[in-house]
Amino acid sequence: MIKAVISPDQYGTNPYSVSTAKYRLGNPHITPGQNIATFHLTRRRDMDDDGTVTDWLSPAEYPDRLITVPSLGVAFKQDIGIHGKTVTLNTSHSEYQLYQNNQEFVALREAETWPRYYVIDWIFTERPACGARFHNWKVVAGGCERLLDQCEDLQSLRLWDRDKGGEWPHSNRSDVQITVHSMFDPSTATSAIKAAAAAYKKSLQK
Q1: pLDDT score of 82 more than 90
Q2: How far is Cα 70 from Cα 162, in angstroms, rounded to an integer?
Q3: pLDDT tens digits, 102-120
Q4: What is the pTM of this model?
Q5: On the chain, which terminus has fewer CB atoms closer than 10 Å, C or N?
């Protein structure tokens, strides 16, 4: 997974952030405290045993797709251990909302259209993907970043290639990484998103 940071003054103008900014403008009930993320899916390219990469899917049949998903904006707590310690689960976050609840993506995943014919090549998320939650040095809640790593590991398997991976179906391709673009620092994200969304709205009124 590749991580990239975009300057907040490019909210709505940087091409990765356009869909997210439009979604926020069109859904005023989504608060600045909620994260919105956009996932870009593109058709899978083929690789043979010699490492030759080719386009084999028609762009007309498999056009690029954008799916924009907000978080629920709520935290879920889970008790762990014998001392009543609680950790926050991450299933309300936008990455999990895409993977578990978005009808379009769930249909692609269940039919194995992703990752057999589509791969996720980039994501724009207002806040960086959250990390795992630990207790006694053990992971007790995976976090969005781990989920994205798992998505990348799955879609990079040669098993999904046209020859089903040939001699190495469970080897991983290095050319199907996910680039995660983020913009706002988590500690100041709520106020920064509010200001950026207002500036974006104002720019459209000129």
Answers
A1: no
A2: 34
A3: 999 999 999 999 999 999 9
A4: 0.89
A5: C
pLDDT digits (tens, 9 = 90+) for 125-182: 999 988 655 556 665 556 788 899 999 999 999 999 999 988 889 999 999 999 999 9
**Hunting for tokens 């989920």 — which residue is that?**
147
Q: Count of CB atoms within 10 A of residue 87's CB? A: 18
User: CB 90: neighbour CB atoms within 10 A?
Assistant: 23
Q: For residue 7, what are the contacts with CB-CB under 8 A and spacing of at least 6?
A: 14, 183
- Cβ-contact 172, 156 below 8 angstroms: yes
Residue 59: cis peptide before it, omega within 30 degrees of 0: no
Provide the residue type at 180 as one letter.
V
DSSP string, the chain: -EEEE--GGGTTTSTTTHHHHHHHHH-TTS-TTS-EEEEEEEEPPEE-TT--EE--S-TTTS--EEEEEE-----EEEEETTTTEEEEE-TTSHHHIIIII-HHHHHHHHTTHHHHTEEEEEEEESSPPP--EEETTEEEE--HHHHHHHHHHHHTBGGGSTTTTTT-TT-B-SS-PPEEEE-S-TTTHHHHHHHHHHHHHHHHT-
- Cα 100 to Cα 79, 104, 187, 195: the distances in Å are 22, 10, 27, 30
pLDDT tier for residue 91 given thresholds of 50, 70 and 90: confident
Pairing of strands 46-47, 53-54: antiparallel
Find tokens 């490492």 and name the residue.
51
